[in-house]
Amino acid sequence: DAKTTQPNSMESNEEEPVHLPCNHSTISGTDYIHWYRQLPSQGPEYVIHGLTSNVNNRMASLAIAEDRKSSTLILHRATLRDAAVYYCILRDPNNAGGTSYGKLTFGQGTILTVHP
Amino acid sequence: GAVVSQHPSWVICKSGTSVKIECRSLDFQATTMFWYRQFPKQSLMLMATSNEGSKATYEQGVEKDKFLINHASLTLSTLTVTSAHPEDSSFYICSASGTSRFTGELFFGEGSRLTVL
Fold first, then answer.
1. How far apart are CA A99 and CA B68, in angstroms?
2. What DSSP line would sit under A84-109, residue for residue?
3. Shortest CA distance to B56 belongs to which of B86, B84, B23?
4. Distance CA B30, CA B18 (A)
């Protein structure tokens, strides 16, 4: 599985933008870049995903480098509710011997702290 | 958005007993579901891939006879922890794909916290 590298932790102030980086230098041409976040004692929540082009949704924006070896999750105005562990994950849709089915393998993620 | 629900949210059992956790996709059909386990202050670890109508595929190091997975319908997958021991105490989370089965977002359940005494 292609791996991702994220900073262990980041801090932000409320209502300021947050840029969460992710390196994935071994990404393959078919890997989709996914971001999820997890609050304590809850299951992960989908944030955004993309393949090559930058993506926007109501939660965040995803900026993907031209060579796809890195990406950045952008929270435009952080709120206290955005404090969570953010995971950058590569999802490989290739069906490797009938067992892959695009599984997600989680790394350690980035702990985002938002200060009032 | 799509909803995945787990039951029970938490369970306490005695050592040696078996515990079943259900994972349901409430408003969509999930051909494939994934089961994860998460220990305190650690990341999620994929245990197995559950495929409707066929045997589950287990990740390396996960005992298939201890963690029984059944995916009998397109909306229900179950994980049974057999002969549970204190080291099996963990947060178990399931997830399912939406319409873009292999590439799109995964929807996660709320998690089930198992405590084995």
1. 17
2. EEEEEEEE----STT--TT-------
3. B23
4. 25
DSSP conformation class of B59: P
Whether B28 and chain A come into contact, CB under 8 Å, resolves to: no
Instruction: Please judge whether A46 and B105 are an interchain contact, meaning their C-beta atoms are less than 8 angstroms apart.
Output: yes
> Which positions of chain B have pLDDT values less than 50?
none
- DSSP secondary structure letter of residue A72: E
Separation in Å, CA A63 to CA A35, A104, B26: 12, 20, 32
Residues A11-63 pLDDT 10s: 999 999 999 999 999 998 888 999 999 998 999 999 999 999 999 999 999 99
- Within 10 Å of residue A45's Cβ, how many Cβ atoms? 16
The shortest C-alpha distance from B15 to chain A (Å) reads 23
